Amino acid sequence: MEPIRPEARSDWSREEIAALFDLPFTELVFRAAEVHRAHHAADEVQLATLLSIKTGGCPEDCGYCSQSVHADSGVEATKMMDVREVLQSAARARDGGSQRFCMGAAWRNPKDRDMPAIVEIVKGVRQMGMETCMTLGMLSPKQADMLAEAGLDYYNHNIDTSPEYYERAVTTRTMDDRLETLDNVRFAGINVCSGGIVGMGETGADRVGFIHTLATLEQHPESVPVNALVPVKGTVLGDMLADTPMAKIDDIEFVRTVAVARITMPLSMVRLSAGRESMSEATQALCFLAGANSIFTGDKLLTAPNAGDDEDAVMFDKLGLKPLSGEDPLRQAQGRAGATREAAE
Ligand code: SAM
Ligand code: DTB
Ligand code: SF4
Description:
Elements: H1 14-21, H2 25-39, E1 44-54, H3 83-95, E2 100-105, H4 115-127, E3 131-135, H5 141-150, E4 154-156, H6 166-169, H7 175-188, E5 191-193, E6 196-198, H8 204-215, E7 223-228, H9 236-243, H10 251-264, E8 269-272, H11 281-289, E9 294-297, H12 309-319, E10 322-323, H13 329-336, H14 341-344
Parallel strand pairs: 1-2, 1-9, 1-10, 2-3, 3-4, 4-5, 6-7, 7-8, 8-9
Helix pairs in contact: 1-8, 2-10, 3-4, 4-5, 5-7, 10-11
Residues 64-65, 104, 106-107, 135, 137, 157-158, 160, 196-197, 227, 229-230, 232, 274, 302, 304 line the site of S-adenosylmethionine.
């Protein structure tokens, strides 16, 4: 079958991706900026707002996460928020200019009894005219179909790192489990949001493997979040970073990762996600030059602090950036096209 978007190749080799990482920095950023301009408005950045609708108490042992029951981070476990409260929060985000409302739950997977409220939330947020994104852990095909039917626009489910480094970060599930959920989401016709975290003590080769895994998916994720580890005290990886400050991701290496994501997945939105709070404006500017075109706004991510709206407004002003004005119809078409189980068989 012909690829739906031929300019988005899925046949990248690890060697090709490693060669991109190895380019002289300015050459790499220049090439990424060229690719970016060919497919996106380079002065527009998508604004998304994040809300934790169910915080803490998660049974998974992700070594980076403050919400795992295996961490001693002081994050208190809460019940899932009421639908009404979530919708009130979404209305505030919309009034603040946000284009997409992303909701996260500290679950290994949603239980079937959670689904009716989740469906109601998706419908309610969509009625407000915002795009919806959810990240609820692993999904069965049936749950993915229910979310698609409710009108969910995006599902976030990160592969986090390379297949080789995966079990250093998480042991309670495998990379294949993650890929299976991504398949279920894709088959249901929901746009895929998948990326990962850099700065978890992984090697350069792991960053190659991380991008390679995403860029060789049959259809690239429409949205690729690149997070810098937010080191949280009491988590395995946060404590590791506190003990070995050398392990902190170098800004230049972070920008390289963004640039390689942009070149290998030219049509995707590349999201400069967690970690902006401790990043200089100059580093963020390099990320935007290298093709990042989406951020989370507001002063909180799920549990960790984020650069606040006022700071971002100042930065956007300085850099001459503006919020993304509209949805790219082609990108939407890519998400929906061919995404049926029949088409895959
Ligand atoms: N429980 C769901 C799951 O793991 O898929 C959804 C929520 S989870 C917090 C969403 C993503 O946030 C994770 O996959 C991870 O990539 C990112 N994340 C979590 N803690 C982080 C941290 N301390 N620094 C950077 N990214 C983090
Ligand atoms: C993603 O890749 N980054 C966002 C979103 N997906 C859900 C979350 C980052 C979480 C940062 C740590 C925290 O707030 O606890
Ligand atoms: Fe749970 Fe998600 Fe945190 Fe892992 S990243 S511990 S699955 S909330």
